[in-house]
Amino acid sequence: MTEKAAISIVIPVYNEEESIPPLYRSVCRACEQLGKPYEVIFVDDGSRDKTFEIVKKLYQQDARVRVVRFRKNFGQTAAMAAGFEYANGEIIVSMDGDLQNDPADIPRLLAKLEEGSDVVCGWRTKRQDKFWTRRLPSVMANWIIGRVTGVRIHDNGCSLKAYRASVIKSVALYGEMHRFIPAMTTLAGARIAEIAVNHHPRRFGKSKYGLGRIWRVVLDIITVKLITGSASRPALWFGLPSFPILGLGLLAFFIAAAMYSAQLPFEWLVLSTVGVLFFLLSLHLLSMGMIGELCMKTGNYLPEKVLHPTIKTL
User: Fold this and answer.
1) Which strands sit side by side in the sheet containing 91-94, from one edge to the other?
2) Angle in degrees, 0-180, between the axes of helices 136-149 and 214-230, rounded to the nearest 10
């Protein structure tokens, strides 16, 4: 019987057939230094090459390897969520499967975690990516995310992170939320730290990301702000902006009444319409706040973690 893992390494992979063998060897070398039982969980996110065959062979050869397979591509966030769900270790480390993250940094992440942190994030201080399409947008996104969420780390996009399982398993991940894990863990009161890590140029294949993801990041920033900022007080979040809007509506009605007295029908109609629109918007915001409060009182207001039925595990 295999000893229960104390540390779980979760690696989402998508069309990474050439990267997996050297990555597996590097991860094993790094984890052997820890002196603790570990497991390596490969999450095949619907690869169309020989990725699954390779990780399946590793699973057959090494009892420490586990495999989760999606029958279609659901994205990195879904892959990470599945890996976290099936992980047995009290400590979970996530990393990319393209050899750009360095497994040699794993012991340093865990050492920082043992100092009292709940989440330790990698910071790619010398990032080996194209400047205009990857590094510059990343710097801008990290700055915006830090200001909006209040969690000011340098590199939200680095997949190399270490977590306490009790913390990361309590976080609902969906959409493209893997970039916002540090901010999401603050809902569980997580203590977050950051250390500089190595970053290597991509050796095989091509990047799965480009400038086309910018609009998704913007929408996710809004979503994360709503979750982290209003999860415990939705009525306040939505109610506060409703009052100045209601004030503008009342002002429009007052001016419309003056226009009616002055026998200016066109001006009266315009301002009356504006007043009604402001009033309805204010009522809509208040209603959203009340619905949010009801959701909080009757159940879990965060999305449930749902594993897709097309997942296959080895």
Assistant:
1) 192-197, 119-124, 161-164, 91-94, 7-13, 38-45, 65-70, 311-313
2) 20
Mean pLDDT in residue range 200-214 = 66
Phi, psi (deg, nearest 5) at residue 77: -65, -45
Q: Give the pLDDT of residue 251.
A: 92
DSSP code for 96: -
Backbone angles phi, psi at 294, to 5 degrees: -65, -40
Q: What angle do CA 280, 281, 284 make, to 5 degrees?
A: 85
Of the candidates 4, 67, 58, which has an alpha carbon nearest to the alpha carbon of residue 313? 67
Q: Which residue has the tokens 């591509």?
A: 73
Distances (CA, A) of 55 to 94, 105, 123, 246, 267: 17, 22, 28, 59, 71
DSSP string covering 141-158, please?
HHHHHHHHHS---S-TT-
User: Which of the four pLDDT bands, split at 50, 70 and 90, describes residue 288?
Assistant: confident
Strands, DSSP E only, in the chain?
Answer: 7-13, 38-45, 65-70, 91-94, 119-124, 161-164, 192-197, 311-313
In sequence order, the 6+-apart residues with CB closer than 8 A to the CB of 180 are: 145, 149, 156, 220, 221, 224
Per-residue pLDDT of 37-70, as tens digits, reads 999 999 999 999 999 999 999 999 999 999 999 9
Are 126 and 44 spatial neighbours (Cβ–Cβ below 8 Å)?
no
Closest by alpha carbon to 81, among 180, 217, 4, 198? 180
Report the alpha-carbon distance of residue 241 to residue 90 in Å, rounded: 43
Rounded Cα distance between 216 and 196, Å, is 27
- Global model pTM greater than 0.90: no
Give the CA-trace dihedral at 165, 171, 173, 178, to 10 degrees: -70
Tens of pLDDT, residues 178-187? 778 888 888 7
* Residues contacting residue 234 through CB under 8 Å, at least 6 positions apart: 288, 289, 291, 292, 293, 295, 296, 301
